[in-house]
Amino acid sequence: MEISELQLGLIGAGGVVVAGIFAFNKWQERSLRRQTEALSSLEPLGDESLARGAGERVEPVIGPEVPPRAQPTAQELRDASARRVSPLPPADLDERADWVVRIEAIEPVVGGRLWQAASQSLEGIGKPLRWFGFSDSDNRWDVLNANSAASYHWVCAALQLVDRRGAASEAELAQLTDSLQRMCDLFMGIPSLPARSEALARAAELDRLCASVDIQIGVNVVAREQLFAGTKLRGLAEAAGLELLGDGCFHARDERGVSQFVLSNLEPGVFVAEEMRGLSTRGVTLMLDVPRVADGVRVFERMLGFAQQLAEALNGAVVDDNRSPFGDKAVGLIRAQIEQFQGQMSEQGVPPGSPLALRLFS
What we know:
The chain is an alpha+beta fold and about 350 residues long. The chain has ten helices and 15 strands. A hairpin with a 5-residue loop joins strand 11 and strand 12. Helix 4 packs across helix 5. The longest helix has about 35 residues, at about 5-40. The protein is elongated.
């Protein structure tokens, strides 16, 4: 049976239709799959969206382009900082002895730059001023100086209110307040200034305590006949563990390097290493600074024992400031005084020889 050209054309057309239907079905299948995947990645609808009817049509709206988020303003940064908890002040500070100002920098500030700027504006303040920066990574306060290269969000300025020259004045705190405010304006900092009147009252009370216990015990060793030769004096001092320092005195120091007592020249002038060979003197003085040693009675006994050793070796005599010999009665009285004064210090929270005592009695 022969197939005409018409039949061939109809067969070909039918094949094209079948292929088209197959392709259309595949396209619908892929489209449905893409829609399903897109829907599964959407966030769950809230109650507001669920309230809309299933048949409600939502027309697309072409709105303005959403601008990028603006940088926070200084006020926004201040508000955010108020919600953060500031670190506690450095552990070696004391609210009775230090006026502590904590400063939060809006942007991290290099410690050395801040220290240098502060030093220029704080000249004339007579009390020691220390600076610290809080390291977030190490969770500690670092001591700041001109070479501090790290940056800090939190900075602390601590003015020591009391030393042997007396208590800080209102004028000194006012100068510090003004200088810190100008520095904060320069470095975009937020200072937290404690009340000055309360700090001055505490400082005055602490200064009265320090004045009541600030005593030194002196023991003299004087020549009987011949003057003391410098070379022999130096040899005896160094054999006993004393060291000649830059102030011209021999120091007996503890394991921390803190002087327990000092040996000085009774005559005008100081000891100089290069001049000890040609030096001669009528006597020497041994001095114990009671508030600055932890165990005053023990240190006094060591000092007195060394004085007696010097007297025997140099043919001298151990006497007090009135040139009266040291007897057992005088020694007992001194021991009692040391115990009394150091006990008062401990009762008032200033242990003798402690880091706080060393700062106050300097």
